[in-house]
Amino acid sequence: MFYRRLGSAGIKVSLLSLGSWITYGTQVDIDAAADMLKLAYDNGINFFDNAEVYAKGQSETIMGAAFRKLGLRRGSYLVSTKLYWGLNEGPNEKNTLNRKYLLEAMDGSLDRLGMDHVDFVYCHRPDSETPMEETVRAMSDIVSAGKAFYWGTSEWSAEQIREAWQIADRRNLHRPQMEQPSYNMITRAKVEKEFARLYEGIGLGLTTFSPLAAGFLTGKYKNGIPEGSRFSLPGYDWLSGRYMNDKFIACVAKLEPIAAELGCSMSQMGIAWVARNPNVSSVITGASKREQLIENLGALEVLPKLTPAILSRIDEAMKPILQ
Question: What are residue 73's phi and psi, to 5 degrees?
Fold first, then answer.
């Protein structure tokens, strides 16, 4: 395993990390989660990503219980959560980053996880209705209280991140340290262009998600939607609507001979492609089975094979659908 600093922070995260979106609480129970976490941990993964909204809080509950079952030393691994969507319908409890919600939601997440702190906490989406300074102060207070060690954002714009950072800098508050954007062979613009000035400018770190575009880049959807796949799950039809069209499928088909030439799976090539970007601190991967996790870990062996010539061929294949 390789480790990278979280932007300008002193903390180091494993280049590959393990996320729980969709799987914990819907596809994976406590015993299976503990088995996966231990396998990841034993292979050097030290960062495990979660969020309040995943499985309506059950994902945090399962992950926390799995870690307690394993009895791993708390200082040896990193856990995150994300706040915004909320678990209740009240006007101050849903789709917001107001102070009341953030402080109470943080306590709720820690209670479900059974932990006294998380290492990273993210504002899961931006909130245009709450003053930025209110959000920044609340997040800074969470860090000052020791309930999280670093705070950051997810799917924010470069302008919003810089505004938050500048407010924190002027007010001597804890500054946002990291962003969690979607990043893969299809979705590139935000990471490679929009954020370009933030890496050195404010020391922004990245923990990217969806390296395989929700599994689409594995090639398993070329003949339709397999039963039991992510696109087939209730409530996730928006994913199939985004990717399942002839143009997208044709572009992904062009990647198959490249992966074959490298002697790896499409999944391994896709994850390695994200990891090859030096601005990416950690690539959040997902797996519901041991075999998937083992395959994902093999992406590290593909990294040195991604030569400029190979990367150019990937770019050419994806050119018609780049975002």
Answer: -65, 125
CATH superfamily, domain 3-215+274-289, is: NADP-dependent oxidoreductase domain (3.20.20.100)
Q: Give catalytic residues, as residue numbers.
A: 54
Given a cut of 90, is residue 46 above it in pLDDT? yes
Q: Extract the tokens encoding 72.
A: 């791993």
**Res. 25 pLDDT band, cuts 50 70 90:** low
Distance between CA atoms of residues 23 and 63, nearest Å: 11
Distance, CA of 118 to CA of 143 (rounded, Å): 10
Is residue 119 within 8 A of residue 80, CB to CB? The reply is: yes
What is the distance between the alpha carbons of residues 211 and 47, in angstroms, rounded to a whole number?
A: 16
**Which residue blocks in 55-121 are alpha helix, DSSP H?**
58-70, 99-113
List the Cα angle 294/208/60 in 5-degree steps.
75
Q: What is the Cα 18 distance to its own chain's centre? A: 8
| Strand bridging mode 205-208 / 282-285 | parallel
